[in-house]
Specification:
Blueprint: H1 2-15, H2 35-49, H3 57-69, H4 94-107, H5 114-126, H6 133-146, H7 150-162, E1 165-167, E2 170-172, H8 185-202, H9 207-219, H10 231-245, E3 253-260, E4 263-271, E5 294-301, E6 326-332, E7 336-337, E8 342-351, E9 360-365, E10 370-373, H11 374-382, E11 388-391, E12 395-400, E13 408-417, E14 421-424, E15 428-432, E16 435-442, E17 446-449
Parallel strand pairs: 7-17
Antiparallel strand pairs: 1-2, 3-4, 3-5, 6-8, 8-13, 9-12, 9-15, 10-13, 11-12, 14-17, 15-16
Helix pairs in contact: 2-3, 2-4, 4-5, 4-6, 5-6, 6-7, 6-8, 8-9, 8-10, 9-10
């Protein structure tokens, strides 16, 4: 019930981004729609419909009709550059745009539409000359789902396979350049590997070949349970896992034991009923020594994934902080005020790495018992000093299209005290929107309201 509540709230929220004249766009009230985001909406709403039957088919049909209205006479959709800062790669070139939209339409159940058939013809005529690995992966998915077109698909998948890096039972691809949402580094490798795994599955590759890519993705999960600290990488990895699960026909009947320094600390039997249930075994601080040996013992048949995660905390000011590509500081003009008075907060952001490009996300902690005066942020938005902002119960989230390298960027806003309290200001953070591993945090402070 809780999961379905999340789906319902998310679905209703997404509907607010539908444009009056058709399609979907970045912000509420934008018009007309953005072709790439409209394709994402078709894919997302179609996925949601499989588990949530209240999805309105008319919304999907309207979005498909919008995409068909703006399709070119040659079957393609043009390059799409007016996306979020750093997101321009999503529509870099007509072939990438066309492949992405055709893939979304086919995945949404519209493969037999004349618009998709025209798009596949456009793709066949352009794909041989394409050199970009990510675009080839998107093309492979479009061809595999759109027409099962072996004549065009087989040589394309052979080109994809030739770019793979194989190490034992692990298989992955390395991103050259940037992904559709401008991801690089670990997140870029996860995105392109998940994309290629989906292409192989949709192209009816062998389970053995797919399992090697899935193994690499499983081994690449970060401590937060996501991939590359990146939304798009995580979404594609999860899609690859779900698709790969449909290929696994073998039964599971196994016993798993977890041992710490030779002593059993957990045991469980897994079968077809519970093999996809997450089982956690946690070690308390008094169990952990300077050196530990953790063993996993598996007896029986089947295939289960696992992850080992450790966490630790360091007091503020005690750690050796290396130079960071992004930095943030948050200060207040005073730390002792009275009820109904205001305090001014000043966030100073600096980008020290000129190679970092794209949207920046700033999360500013809201102390308990304070209200944010939004007129300050509204003024910054009207002056285009910030792209947008939103309030949660504990944070102000500010979006910046770009942060100039080497310059300090200042965001000022006021908070009003509601009642007497002695409170921590909360953690504040700056990070690259599409590279969550590039981040920096500011130490919390203290405010006293009398």
């Amino acid at each position: 019930m809780k999961a379905m509540q999340y789906v319902n709230v998310g679905y209703q929220r997404i509907l607010t981004f539908e444009c009056r004249s058709g399609g979907f766009n970045w912000w509420e009230g934008d018009d007309p729609g953005n072709p790439i985001l409209s394709a994402i909406a078709v894919s997302m709403l179609s996925d949601t419909k499989r588990v949530y039957h209240a999805v309105d088919d008319a919304v999907i049909e309207r979005t498909v009709a919008y995409l068909e209205r703006i399709q070119g006479p040659d079957g393609g959709w043009g390059a799409e550059s007016h996306l979020h800062a750093g997101n321009e790669n999503l529509g870099a070139g007509a072939l990438r745009s066309t492949c992405y939209i055709a893939w979304s339409l086919a995945e949404g159940g519209f493969a037999s539409r004349p618009s998709v058939m025209k798009a596949l013809g456009f793709i066949r005529g352009k794909v041989d000359a394409e050199k970009d690995l990510y675009t080839l992966g998107v093309c492979a998915n479009a061809l595999a789902l759109g027409a099962k077109d072996g004549a065009a698909l087989r040589p394309l998948l052979d080109r994809v396979r030739a770019e793979a890096v194989e190490e034992g039972d692990l298989l992955h691809w390395e991103m050259k350049g940037m992904t559709v949402v401008n991801s690089g580094g670990a997140a870029g490798n996860v995105e392109v590997t998940a994309l290629m795994a989906l292409a192989l599955i949709n192209g009816e590759a062998t389970a053995q070949e797919v399992s090697k890519a899935v193994n690499w993705l499983a081994a690449s999960k970060d401590p937060n349970g996501t991939w590359g600290y990146n939304t798009q990488a995580t979404v594609l990895a999860l899609k690859a896992f779900l698709k790969a699960a449909t290929m696994q026909g073998s039964d599971t009947a196994a016993d798993v034991r977890v041992l710490l320094d030779g002593k059993e600390i957990g045991a469980r039997h897994f079968d077809n009923f519970n093999r996809e249930v997450v089982w956690s075994v946690e070690l308390s601080a008094d169990q952990v020594k300077r050196h530990n040996v953790i063993e996993l013992q598996f007896t029986g048949m089947g295939s289960l994934g696992y992850q080992v995660v450790s966490t630790h905390f360091v007091p503020w000011g005690k750690q050796d902080r290396p130079a960071e590509p992004l930095t943030i500081s948050l200060s207040y003009d005073r730390n002792r005020i009275k009820v109904d008075e205001t305090v001014k907060a000043t966030a100073v952001l600096t980008k020290n790495d000129a190679d970092l490009r794209g949207m920046v996300l700033v999360s500013l902690g809201i102390p308990p018992g304070f209200d944010v005066l939004t007129e300050d942020l509204d003024l910054l938005k009207s002056q285009k000093a910030i792209a947008s902002y939103e309030l949660t119960g504990r944070q102000v989230i500010v979006y910046l299209n770009e942060l100039p390298a080497g310059e300090s960027w200042v965001v000022e806003y006021r908070l009003k005290a509601r009642y007497p309290v002695k409170a921590q200001t909360g953690e504040s953070e700056v990070r690259m929107y599409y590279r969550g591993d590039v981040r920096s945090t500011a130490a919390p402070g203290e405010l006293i309201v009398e």
